[in-house]
Amino acid sequence: MPDRGRFPATLAAVALAVLALALAAGLTGALPFAGQSDGDALVESVRDRYESAETYTAEVTVNATDGTATETRNLSVAHAAPNSSRLTLEDEGGDVVYGTNGTVAWVYDEANDTARVYPLNGSASNATDHPARNGTAWNSTDAGNDTHPANLSTYLEENVSATVVGSETVRGAGTTVVRLEPENESREGTTTLWVDDDDRVHRLRTTRGENVTTVEFRDQHFNASIHESTFRPPTDAAVTVAVTERYDSFDAAQAGTDVELRSLDGDYEFVEAATVTRGGATVTTQQYTETGTNATVALAATADSLPYDAENGTSVTVDGADATYVERDEGGAVFWTEDGLTRGVAADVSREELVELAEDVRS
């Protein structure tokens, strides 16, 4: 699955998050606010407007900047209570669609006419977990998914000051501008909503330092009829089913796979592991954090190839063996073949440090 629009964070994840916020958690849970009365009253009305909707659709434009570069993407979103969602990320090379019907989560890549389906084992709590992480086995244990809607709900359940700061016309509609600020000092940034007289959100903007994400909502429809097939994965695409098992200890992970796993010792603490089976290929990943720095390191092992492009890699030597280094958006990865298995190490560190980690694993 290509990694499209990963700036300054995965735009699909950002869009899912801002959609959840714009829905005021009405279709996903309660959303209490605290603050000045006018702002509170308006946000309460917005919450009631979205909370009462059985379905919701909209066209969305997401503009993200980190102060030096900007990217804009167009999306279409649909939601049906209690736990069905669909988000289409428009791309010149072919749209990418993320969806869930509460039973499975899926991501469809139009360019390759390929769909990946993730069973949810009867739980919709992680319905957007895998698609937001690009559907790769290596990313199955990624941390720091701050833009996940569930995390936004947690944030909004804390004390937030809602203040009316003015009025503005947005695409011909008169709106009231409301600023939301966290009262928890550990939270950074603000969120601003532009709300019309019908309690619809026309614009949403989150600001954290130089990182600013602006979301424009158009063609919003409430309680329109949406066929349930909208939230099913496509049946005429090349479908790959991914099954994931998660483990909270090294011993449990080892018992769950026939592959002999390696570990990091010393200053590294085990966090979790996952075994992902997709299209007959199984990859086991482990996540560690370094004591004192909280740096995250991922280990992977599989009888097949790992999801990195060796052609774009650089040859390195790991404990006397040939290996490949591949640069990633965050840090890099080193992988090598040993006794018929492919093993890898990924972390947000320099190539030299990564090779040292790989040598510790291999030895």
Describe this structure in words.
The protein has 363 residues and is mostly beta strands. It has two domains: 11-231, outer membrane lipoprotein receptor (LolB), chain A (Clam); 248-362, MucB/RseB, C-terminal domain (Phosphorylase Kinase, domain 1, 2-Layer Sandwich), CATH 3.30.200. It is 15% helix and 43% strand. The chain contains five helices and 19 strands. The chain has helices at 11-22, 37-51, 149-157, 250-255, 351-362; strands at 55-65, 70-80, 84-89, 96-100, 104-109, 114-119, 160-170, 173-182, 190-195, 201-208, 211-222, 238-247, 268-278, 281-290, 296-302, 314-318, 321-327, 332-338, 341-347. It has a 19-stranded mixed sheet, with helices on both faces. Helix 1 (11-22) packs across helix 3 (149-157). The chain is globular, with a radius of gyration of 22 Å. The two termini are 32 Å apart.
Number of strands: 19
> How would a crystallographer describe the biggest sheet?
19 strands, mixed
Give the termini separation: 32 Å
What percentage of residues falls in helices of 4 or more residues? Answer: 10-25%
**CATH superfamily annotation of the largest domain:** Lipoprotein localisation LolA/LolB/LppX
Tell me the β content: 35-45%
Number of helices: 5
Classification by helices and strands: mainly beta
Computed CA radius of gyration, to the nearest angstrom: 22 Å
CATH class of the largest domain: Mainly Beta
Q: What is the ordering of alpha helices and beta strands?
A: HHEEEEEEHEEEEEEHEEEEEEEH
